[in-house]
UniProtKB/TrEMBL annotation:
CDD domains noted in UniProt: YjgF_YER057c_UK114_family
Name assigned to this protein: RidA family protein
GO molecular function term, any single one: hydrolase activity
Highest taxon listed in the record's lineage: Bacteria
Enzyme kind, highest EC tier: hydrolase
E.C. code: 3.5.-.-
Entry-linked InterPro entries: RidA (IPR006056), RutC-like_sf (IPR035959), YjgF/YER057c/UK114 (IPR006175)
Keywords for this protein: Hydrolase, Signal
Organism this protein belongs to: Aquimarina rubra
Length: 151
């Protein structure tokens, strides 16, 4: 499954780069907006032309660095608020999101997660959702996004 997931990301990345009219598209690995994540082994966002590839977010309260309590709905809300914070750092909002990949720890949480998700994305970006056996820090959900910024 991991190989399939990486393959999808590479295809998406390649298409984005191929469709860019600039001949020399630069890649920018943006520093995090959270001081506590400054030494993390990944970027919160990587920019290629006008596309921003956001790293996965979980339902972690970034002030306490702990998962929020209250189940899948609360974790989904926090996850989406964390995505909003990354987008805001790059002068974007949820309307800029064109694709989401959602990983649930339990596919039975699909309906409850989707109920919250649709409140944040009325524009209905493309979405892939699947379940995995375990997520980082024991999270119930992780969401990564691709956003497009108008020039």
């Amino acid at each position: 499954m991991k190989k399939s997931y990486l393959y999808i990301i590479l295809i998406t990345f390649s298409i984005g780069c191929a469709n860019n009219s600039e001949s020399n598209t630069s890649i920018t690995f943006h520093k995090t907006h959270e001081a506590k994540k400054a030494n993390a082994p990944f970027s919160d966002a990587v920019q290629v032309g006008n596309l921003y590839f956001l790293s996965g977010q979980v339902g972690m309260d970034h002030t306490s660095r702990t998962l929020v309590t209250g189940g899948i709905k609360k974790e989904t809300e926090q996850t989406l608020e964390n995505i909003k914070a990354v987008l805001k750092h790059h002068d974007m909002d949820m309307d800029n999101v064109v694709k989401c990949t959602v990983i649930l720890s339990d596919i039975n949480d699909f309906a409850a997660f989707s109920e919250v998700y649709k409140e944040y994305f009325p524009q209905k970006p493309a979405r892939t959702t699947f379940a995995a056996k375990g997520l980082a820090v024991g999270a119930k959900i992780e969401i990564e996004c691709i956003a497009a910024k108008s020039k």
